Amino acid sequence: MQNTDIPSRGRWKDGMASIEQVKAEIAQAAEQSNTTTSQIQAAIEGTDQVLARLRAVSAGTGHPAISEAIARAEQSKQRLIEAATTLQGSTVAARHYISILG
Fold it and tell me: What is the C-alpha to C-alpha distance for residues 80 and 91, in angstroms, rounded to an integer?
């Protein structure tokens, strides 16, 4: 499904957006980034729960399959943390650009 709320060159008069329109679009992108970061944080918490369950049931066993499951869940959590951090950086940069525009 395609998002029709995303601006395109044809949306603006003469194909050019005003500074205020650009600032508004960037602010909306930053807000959406915050929302997505919150969703990633929820996924990180869910992954923590997965890890807790896997560790609880694997106590006393050294089977390679459960060790692999834990390792993959830990890797997933780390990648989610990286994604959230990168997205937060995107938000900061977008808001900085808004301030540059005035």
Answer: 16
Name the residue with tokens 């194909």: 15
Q: How far apart are CA 66 and CA 23, in angstroms?
A: 49
How is residue 6 annotated by DSSP?
A: S
In angstroms, what CA-CA distances link 48 with 53, 61, 74, 97? 9, 20, 8, 35
**φ, ψ dihedrals at 94, nearest 5°:** -65, -45
Q: Using CA atoms, how far apart are residues 80 and 73, in angstroms rounded to an integer? A: 10
pTM of the model: 0.80
Query: pLDDT higher for 25 or 62?
Result: 25
